[in-house]
C-alpha cells in the first residue's frame, strides 16, 4: 500500500471524493435552510397584522336612516391642515387676534371648542376621523399610512353630491372612486420644499377653484340645478399651514400669517355661499386634522399635535352660550382613545366668557351627518356632540338613537320609549347601549390574539432550535463518529414515523381552522410551526447523542457554555433596550474601549499603537449616541467630515505601505505589490471625496440663495456618488487596502446625503471597524505564538475540508455578537433610523427637491445602508482573516436576531402615536427581516470582498491530513 505522506493515494482519493460530496450536500442544505428561513420570517412577519393590525372596518351593514328633518341643506367643511389650536386662538405680539372673522363667529353666531385628534396625528388618519368617523385603521400600516387597504363609508358617500378641492394626497382618498363627486387637486410639484416660499398659495388655490365653480354655474344650468339640491357637501382642504409648519416651524411669521390667510378664506367662502344661495340653509365647520410640534413635525400624542380648533356655525347650529359652571363641556366618549378633555381655557385666548365644547375628532362625522339629515357612516365610532346642534328635544333623541343604531346596526327595542316622551330615559339607555356595543367590538377585535401569539412564538423557538442543530452538525468539531451509528438507526426506524405524525397533526389542525372559517394565513402559521418541530423531532437520535456528549463533558466546559449563553442573552437584551434608549451605546463603547485596551496592553507592547487606537476610537464613537436624534443643519461639519475621511484614507495608505515589518499588522496588509492594476486609483478616490465636500457647499449655498437646485449641480452630485461606488472594485486585494477603498468609495454619497454631525459618524464608525480588525488580528497573532508542533495534532479536528476554514469554537460567538452591536450602531448611531419619518427630508435636497416620495425614501434608505455596508464588508473580511465559515456565522447572526425578534414581537403596539406604532413595527421588522436583509447585503458586499487576500495562520487541510 504505497503512500505519499501519512495516507495512501487510494485513501486520499476516497477522502477527496467524500469531501466533494459533503460540500455539495452542505450547499444544498444551506440553500434549503435559507429558503426556509425567508419563507418562515415572511409568514411570521405577517402575523403581527393579524394579531395587532386587523382592520376594525366591517362590511355588510345597512345605513340607518334618521327620523328627523335635516337642519341644513348643505354643509361646508374647511380643514386647515396642520393648524394648532393655540396659534389659532391666541393673539399675536401686538394683541391682535389672527383669526378675526372666525372669532366673531364664535362670539356671535356659532359654537366653538377643541377637537382632540387621536395619534397617529397624520393628515390621512385625521381626515378619515373627521369625514368617516373612525380612528386610524391599523391595517393601513401596510400602505404606509397613505391609504386604507379596506374600503370604508364616509359622510361624502352619504351626500347627494360632494365638491372637493385641495391636496392630491387627501382629496382623492375620499373622492377618487366616488361617482357623485366633483373634485380637483393641484399637482405634486406645487409642494417643492426647496423653494422656501410661503405655501399659503395652496390655500388660495383651493378657494379659487371653489369660486370658479360657483361662477361657472351661472353659465351651466345643470351645475346650477345640482348646487340647489339638498344634502350637498363642499370640502376645502387647506394645506398651507402644514407645509409652512414643516418648512419654517409653527413659530415663524410665515406660519402665523397663514393662520390669517385661512381665516380670510373662511370669511370669503361664507360670503360667497350667502350671496349665492341666499337661504340661510348652509352649515359651516372649520377645523384641522392635526397640529404641529415646535420642531415642525407631527405624529405623536403631544397636545401641540392633538389639539386642533373647531368652529361650527350656520343652519342647525346653536348660538354662543355664556359661560355657566365649568368653563367648557366635554362630549367625548372614550372608546380606545383616552383623551381627557378638561384642560382649562388659557386666559390669553380671551374666550373664558363663552362655553367651550370639546369633542373627539371622530365626533365631527356624526355631527355633519346630523346637520345634513343623512345616515351616519356605517363604520363611525363618533359620538354626536349635542351641544353643537340646535334641534327640538325629540329630534335630539332621534339623532342620538340613529347614532346608536348605526353602531349596533339593529333596531333598538328601547326606541318605544320615545313614543311615551320619556326622553331622558331613552337618551340614557341609548348612550349606555352604544358604549356596550363599542366595547364588544373591541373584544371581538382581539379574540384570536392568544392563539396566534402562542403558535407564532412556538414557531420562532422551533426555528432557533433547528438553527442550533444545523450549526452543531455542520460547523463545529463534534466527533462525527459519535452520531454515525445513531443516524443509521434513526433514518431507518424513526424518521418516517415522525414525519407521518407531523403531517397528521397539520391536517387535523388545519381542518379545525377550516371549520372555524379562519383566514388562510392562520393555516400557514400553524403548518409552519408544526413542520419545524417535526424537523427537530426527526433528529431525536442526534439530540440524544448531543445530550450524552454534554453529560460526559468536563465541568469547566459546561461552566464556559453556560457563561457564554448568559453573556449572549445579556448583550441581546442590551440591544433590545438600545432600540429605545440610544445612550446605552455610550456606556457600551466606554466600557468596551477600556476592557479591550487593557487586554491588548497585557498581550502586546503598547508601542504597536493598537491598544491606544482601540481605546480612542471606541470612546470617540460613544459620543454620537448622546447627540440629539433630530440632526441640526451644519454644513461646516459635513465639510470637516470630508477632510477627516481624506485623512483616514491617507493614514490607512501609509500604514499599508510602511508597516510590512510590524508583526502585529502582518495579516491585514497588502502582499501583492507587483500587480497594481490602477496605481492612481487611491488618489482619484481622495479627489472625489474632496469634490463631494465642495459640492456640499455649492449646492447648499445656491439652493438657499436662489431657492432652486441647479441641474448642473444635480448632475455632478449624481455622477460623483455613482462613479465613486464603482471604483473599489478595481482596488488592491490586500485586506486593509480593499477596505480603505470601500470606505472612500461610499464616502462621497454619504457626504452629499448628510446635513450635520452624521457625516462625522461615518468616519467614527470606520475607525471602530478598523479597531475591530486590529483586535481580531492581534488574537490571530497570539494564537500563532501559542501554536506549537505538539498542538498541531489537535488542529486536525478543527479544520473543515472546505476552503481551509476551521470549525467554529465557543469563543467564536463573539464575532456575530460584535457584528449585531455594530449593525445596530449603524442604524441608530445618529438617530432613530427605524422609521422613515425620523429622517430629515432636507438630506436629499442635493439630489432632488421636487416632492417625489418614492425617490426621496429610496435615497434616505440608501443613506442608511451605507454604514451598514461597511459593517458587512468588515464582517466578511474578518471571517476570511481568522478562517471561519461565513455561512456558519451568518446562521448564528440569524439565531441571535431571532432571540430579539421574539422580544420585539411582544412589544408591537397598535395604539399611541404614529411614531410609537411605527417604531414598534419597524423594530420587529428590522430584526425579523435580517435573514433576508443580511443575506442580500452579503451578496452585494461579496462583490467588493470576494477577492480579499490574507495570510493564513492555519495549516491547510492537506497538511493537516
Architecture overview:
The protein is mainly α and 961 residues long. The chain is 58% helix and 6% strand. The protein has a 9-stranded mixed sheet with strand order 4-3-5-1-6-7-2-9-8, with helices on both faces. The radius of gyration is 34 Å and the shape is globular. The N terminus and C terminus are likely disordered.
- The percent range for helix content is 55-70%
- Give the helix tally: 35
Total strand count, please?
A: 9
Strand arrangement across the biggest beta sheet: 4-3-5-1-6-7-2-9-8
Mass-distribution shape: globular
Uncertain residue segments: 1-9, 326-341, 410-420, 484-492, 788-801, 832-838, 953-961
Cα(first) to Cα(last) distance is 17 Å
Could you describe the largest sheet, including whether it forms a barrel?
A: 9 strands, mixed
- Structure class: mainly alpha
* Beta-strand share of residues: 5-15%
Q: Rg, please?
A: 34 Å
Global mean pLDDT: 79
Short description:
With 961 residues, the protein is mainly alpha-helical. Strand 3, helix 6 and strand 4 form a beta-alpha-beta unit.
Topology overview:
Blueprint lengths: L8 H43 L22 E7 L4 H5 L10 H9 L2 E6 L6 H10 L22 H4 L2 E6 L4 H5 L5 E5 L15 H17 L3 H7 L4 E7 L1 H9 L4 H25 L4 E6 L15 H4 E8 L13 E3 L25 E5 L3 H9 L20 H16 L7 H4 L3 H23 L3 H27 L5 H13 L1 H21 L4 H18 L2 H13 L2 H24 L4 H21 L6 H13 L12 H24 L22 H26 L4 H16 L8 H18 L5 H29 L5 H4 L18 H15 L24 H29 L4 H20 L8 H15 L1 H16 L11 H4 L1
Parallel strand pairs: 1-5, 1-6, 2-9, 3-4, 3-5, 8-9
Antiparallel strand pairs: 2-7, 6-7
Amino acid at each position: 500500500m504505497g503512500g505519499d505522506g501519512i495516507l495512501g493515494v487510494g485513501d486520499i482519493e476516497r477522502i477527496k471524493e467524500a469531501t466533494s460530496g459533503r460540500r455539495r450536500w452542505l450547499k444544498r442544505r444551506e440553500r434549503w435552510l435559507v429558503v426556509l428561513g425567508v419563507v418562515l420570517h415572511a409568514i411570521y412577519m405577517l402575523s403581527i397584522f393579524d394579531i395587532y393590525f386587523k382592520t376594525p372596518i366591517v362590511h355588510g351593514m345597512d345605513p340607518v336612516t334618521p327620523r328627523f328633518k335635516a337642519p341644513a341643506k348643505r354643509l361646508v367643511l374647511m380643514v386647515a391642515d396642520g393648524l394648532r389650536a393655540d396659534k389659532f386662538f391666541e393673539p399675536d405680539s401686538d394683541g391682535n387676534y389672527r383669526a378675526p372673522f372666525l372669532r366673531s363667529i364664535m362670539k356671535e353666531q356659532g359654537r366653538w371648542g377643541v377637537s382632540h385628534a387621536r395619534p397617529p396625528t397624520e393628515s390621512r388618519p385625521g381626515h378619515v376621523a373627521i369625514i368617516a368617523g373612525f380612528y386610524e385603521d391599523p391595517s393601513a400600516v401596510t400602505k404606509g399610512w397613505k391609504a386604507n387597504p379596506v374600503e370604508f363609508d364616509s359622510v361624502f358617500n352619504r351626500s347627494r353630491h360632494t365638491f372637493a378641492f385641495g391636496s392630491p394626497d387627501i382629496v382623492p382618498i375620499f373622492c377618487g372612486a366616488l361617482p357623485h363627486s366633483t373634485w380637483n387637486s393641484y399637482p405634486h410639484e406645487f409642494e417643492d420644499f426647496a423653494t422656501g416660499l410661503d405655501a399659503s398659495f395652496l390655500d388660495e388655490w383651493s378657494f379659487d377653484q371653489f369660486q370658479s365653480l360657483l361662477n361657472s354655474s351661472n353659465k351651466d344650468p345643470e351645475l346650477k340645478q345640482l348646487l340647489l339640491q339638498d344634502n350637498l357637501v363642499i370640502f376645502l382642504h387647506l394645506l398651507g399651514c402644514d407645509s409652512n409648519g414643516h418648512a419654517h416651524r409653527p413659530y415663524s411669521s410665515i406660519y402665523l400669517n397663514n393662520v390669517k390667510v385661512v381665516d380670510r378664506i373662511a370669511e370669503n367662502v361664507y360670503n360667497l355661499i350667502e350671496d349665492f344661495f341666499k337661504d340661510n340653509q348652509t352649515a359651516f365647520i372649520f377645523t384641522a386634522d392635526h397640529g404641529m410640534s415646535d420642531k415642525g413635525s407631527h405624529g405623536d400624542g403631544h397636545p401641540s399635535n392633538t389639539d386642533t380648533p373647531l368652529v361650527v356655525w350656520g343652519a342647525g347650529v346653536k348660538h354662543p352660550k355664556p359661560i355657566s359652571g365649568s368653563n367648557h363641556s366635554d362630549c367625548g366618549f372614550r372608546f380606545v382613545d383616552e383623551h381627557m378633555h378638561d384642560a382649562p381655557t388659557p386666559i390669553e385666548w380671551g374666550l373664558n366668557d363663552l362655553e367651550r365644547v370639546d369633542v373627539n375628532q371622530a365626533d365631527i362625522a356624526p355631527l355633519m351627518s346630523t346637520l345634513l339629515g343623512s345616515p351616519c357612516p356605517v363604520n363611525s365610532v363618533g359620538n354626536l356632540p349635542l351641544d353643537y346642534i340646535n334641534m327640538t328635544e325629540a329630534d335630539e333623541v332621534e339623532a342620538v338613537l340613529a347614532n346608536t343604531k348605526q353602531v349596533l346596526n339593529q333596531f333598538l327595542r328601547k326606541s318605544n320609549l320615545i313614543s311615551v316622551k320619556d326622553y331622558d330615559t331613552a337618551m340614557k339607555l341609548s348612550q349606555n347601549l352604544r358604549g356596550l356595543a363599542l366595547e364588544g367590538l373591541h373584544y371581538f377585535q382581539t379574540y384570536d390574539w392568544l392563539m396566534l401569539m402562542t403558535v407564532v412564538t412556538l414557531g420562532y423557538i422551533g426555528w432557533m432550535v433547528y438553527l442550533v442543530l444545523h450549526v452543531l452538525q455542520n460547523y463545529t468539531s463534534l466527533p462525527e463518529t459519535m452520531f454515525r451509528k445513531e443516524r443509521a438507526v434513526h433514518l431507518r426506524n424513526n424518521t418516517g414515523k415522525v414525519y407521518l405524525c407531523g403531517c397528521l397533526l397539520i391536517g387535523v389542525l388545519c381542518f379545525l381552522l377550516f371549520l372555524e372559517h379562519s383566514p388562510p394565513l392562520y393555516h400557514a402559521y400553524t403548518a409552519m410551526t408544526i413542520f419545524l418541530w417535526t424537523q427537530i423531532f426527526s433528529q431525536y437520535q442526534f439530540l440524544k447523542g448531543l445530550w450524552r456528549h454534554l453529560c460526559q463533558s468536563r465541568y469547566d466546559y459546561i461552566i464556559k457554555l453556560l457563561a457564554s449563553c448568559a453573556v449572549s442573552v445579556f448583550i441581546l437584551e442590551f440591544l433590545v433596550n438600545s432600540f429605545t434608549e440610544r445612550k446605552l451605546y455610550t456606556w457600551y463603547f466606554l466600557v468596551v474601549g477600556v476592557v479591550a485596551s487593557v487586554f491588548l496592553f497585557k498581550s502586546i507592547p503598547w508601542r504597536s499603537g493598537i491598544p491606544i487606537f482601540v481605546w480612542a476610537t471606541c470612546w470617540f464613537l460613544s459620543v454620537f449616541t448622546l447627540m440629539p436624534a433630530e440632526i441640526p443643519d451644519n454644513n461646516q461639519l459635513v465639510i470637516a467630515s470630508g477632510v477627516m475621511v481624506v485623512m483616514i484614507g491617507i493614514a490607512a495608505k501609509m500604514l499599508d505601505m510602511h508597516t510590512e515589518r510590524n508583526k502585529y499588522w502582518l495579516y491585514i496588509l497588502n502582499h501583492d505589490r507587483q500587480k497594481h492594476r490602477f496605481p492612481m486609483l487611491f488618489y482619484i478616490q481622495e479627489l472625489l471625496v474632496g469634490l463631494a465636500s465642495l459640492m456640499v457647499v455649492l449646492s447648499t449655498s445656491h439652493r438657499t440663495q436662489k431657492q432652486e437646485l441647479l441641474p448642473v449641480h444635480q448632475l455632478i452630485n449624481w455622477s460623483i456618488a455613482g462613479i465613486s461606488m464603482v471604483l473599489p472594485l478595481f482596488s488592491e486585494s490586500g485586506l486593509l487596502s480593499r477596505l480603505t477603498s470601500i470606505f472612500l468609495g461610499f464616502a462621497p454619497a454619504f457626504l452629499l446625503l448628510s446635513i450635520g454631525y452624521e457625516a462625522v459618524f461615518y468616519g467614527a464608525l470606520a475607525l471602530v471597524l478598523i479597531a475591530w480588525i486590529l483586535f481580531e488580528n492581534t488574537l490571530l497573532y497570539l494564537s500563532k505564538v501559542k501554536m506549537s508542533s505538539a498542538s498541531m495534532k489537535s488542529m486536525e479536528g478543527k479544520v473543515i475540508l472546505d476552503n481551509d476554514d476551521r470549525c467554529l469554537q465557543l469563543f467564536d460567538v463573539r464575532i456575530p455578537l460584535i457584528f449585531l452591536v455594530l449593525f445596530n450602531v449603524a442604524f441608530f448611531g445618529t438617530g432613530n433610523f427605524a422609521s422613515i419619518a425620523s429622517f430629515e427630508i432636507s438630506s436629499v435636497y442635493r439630489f432632488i427637491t421636487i416632492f417625489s416620495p418614492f425617490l426621496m425614501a429610496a435615497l434616505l434608505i440608501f443613506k442608511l445602508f451605507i454604514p451598514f455596508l461597511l459593517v458587512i464588508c468588515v464582517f466578511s473580511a474578518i471571517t476570511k482573516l481568522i478562517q471561519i465559515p461565513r455561512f456558519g456565522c451568518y446562521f448564528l447572526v440569524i439565531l441571535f436576531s431571532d432571540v430579539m425578534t421574539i422580544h420585539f414581537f411582544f412589544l408591537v403596539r397598535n395604539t399611541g402615536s404614529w411614531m410609537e406604532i411605527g417604531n414598534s413595527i419597524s423594530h420587529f421588522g428590522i430584526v425579523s427581516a435580517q435573514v433576508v436583509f443580511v443575506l442580500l447585503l452579503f451578496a452585494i458586499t461579496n462583490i467588493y470582498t470576494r477577492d480579499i487576500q490574507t495570510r493564513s495562520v492555519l495549516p491547510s487541510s492537506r497538511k493537516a491530513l
